Amino acid sequence: MAQTKKLNVKVGDQVTIISGFHKNETGEVIKVDKKTQKVVVQGINFKFKHVKPTSENEIGEIKQFEAPIHHSNVKIN
Question: Which UniProt keywords are given for this protein, alphabetically ordered (predicted)?
Fold first, then answer.
């Protein structure tokens, strides 16, 4: 059985990004995944997904969502 590492961040914590493209930006933790050791921070690391229409009367769209960041790249304020 694989053990999960204890993460120092919890949902609702204010964190600062300490490395990567969004360095020195702050936000609130929305979600924590202990299995992959990643966190989702509100307003940080947006990604875009292009969605094709599924039926003839729908239109395609571009969905925007926050991608996870590894917990070692954030620090609690």
Answer: Chloroplast, Plastid, Ribonucleoprotein, Ribosomal protein, RNA-binding, rRNA-binding
Q: Position of tokens 């571009």?
A: 62
Residue appearing with tokens 């919890």: 10
**Contacting residues for 54 by C-beta, under 8 A, at least 6 apart:** none
Q: Are 66 and 30 in contact (CB under 8 A)?
A: yes
The token duo for 77 is: 């304020």
Per-residue pLDDT of the chain (77 residues; tens, 9 = 90+): 567 778 899 999 999 999 999 999 999 999 999 999 999 999 999 999 999 999 999 999 999 999 999 999 999 99
At 12, list the tokens.
């609702």
CA pair distance 68, 37, nearest whole angstrom: 9
Closest CA to 5 of 27, 32, 40: 32
